[in-house]
Write a structure and sequence with these properties.
The protein is an alpha/beta fold and 270 residues long. 36% of the residues lie in helices and 14% in strands. The strands form two sheets. The protein has a six-stranded parallel β-sheet with strand order 7-6-5-8-9-10, sandwiched between helices.
Length: 270
């Protein structure tokens, strides 16, 4: 079993494994959200017959399987649907909001250092000069991209936030009142916690938002001003509307990231 990303170095390892141990079954675990920017998952015509590929790719949900089949060009016989093995299953009900009366915004970065730096610039535009006194911000970089390196790119910032690197994701999602993301699978995980999400459109030629098409509990922002406006829109939701839309978000996330069950684990071994 290995995390399936269809990279060149991965194919080299697969080729060596087949040569050294032909009887070993190789199962690729598709483990993160897919977007049009993930061109490493795109197969050309006939490539599945010549490239080293696993015996099976187990996808973390039905939407991911459909993406690899319809956009990626992977043959049906290679794909199956399992479950999401990323984090602990979400709670049975959305955690209640914090009792401090403040609004808690979590920003989750992934994919690249440039994405993280651009997210910081957007945050600075939103809150660098006159941050609301009711807003608390936590930045969660991807483990591969250090926040201090991104800050060296952006230069000094006035916006105040806390570095959430290395903290448990479940605790951060329970704390958050909203989650902003650009390409991270954490956007879907936030929905599974009943948290509204804000997709940060960074103007990429290829789409990088894995939640594109879902709008029930998702907003978009193309600038810092829009990010601040979306935060205020979410803050203004009534408790009833928030609960109703959170239910739709959790249902959607359940299809995108199915929780581990005996039936969901069976495709990894069948």
């Amino acid at each position: 079993f290995y995390p399936f990303e269809n990279l060149a170095r991965e194919r080299a390892i697969l080729g060596a494994a087949r040569r050294l141990s032909p009887s070993t079954r190789l199962i690729g675990c598709q483990h993160a959200a897919l977007t049009l920017s993930h061109i490493n998952y795109k197969l050309g015509r006939g490539e599945e017959e010549i490239l080293p590929l696993p015996d099976k790719v187990v996808c973390m949900g039905g939407p991911s399987r459909a993406f690899l089949r319809d956009w990626g060009g992977f043959p049906d016989r290679l794909l199956s649907v399992g479950c999401a093995l990323r984090q602990d299953p979400p709670p049975s009900a959305p955690p209640p909001p914090q009792a401090d009366g403040r609004f808690h915004l979590l920003l989750a970065s992934a994919t690249s250092m440039s994405e993280l730096a651009e997210m910081l610039r957007t945050l600075e535009e939103a809150c660098g000069e006159d941050a609301p006194d009711w807003l608390d911000i936590v930045m969660r970089p991807h483990p591969l991209f250090a926040l201090k390196t991104a800050l060296a790119r952006t230069g000094p910032l006035k916006v105040r936030f806390r570095d959430g690197s290395g903290e448990p994701l479940a605790a951060q999602l329970a704390w958050a009142d909203a989650v902003a993301y650009a390409s991270s699978t954490i956007g879907a995980e936030a929905l599974s916690f009943g948290r509204p999400v804000i997709g940060l459109d960074q103007g990429h030629w290829f789409g990088i938002d894995p939640l594109e098409g879902f709008t029930d509990f998702r907003w978009t922002a193309r600038s810092g001003r829009e990010l601040r406006s979306r935060v205020e829109d979410i803050r203004a939701l009534s408790a009833a509307e928030r609960a109703e839309r959170a239910g739709r978000g959790r249902a959607w996330a359940g299809r995108f990231l199915p929780a581990p069950t005996p039936a969901g684990l069976e495709p990894y071994f069948a």
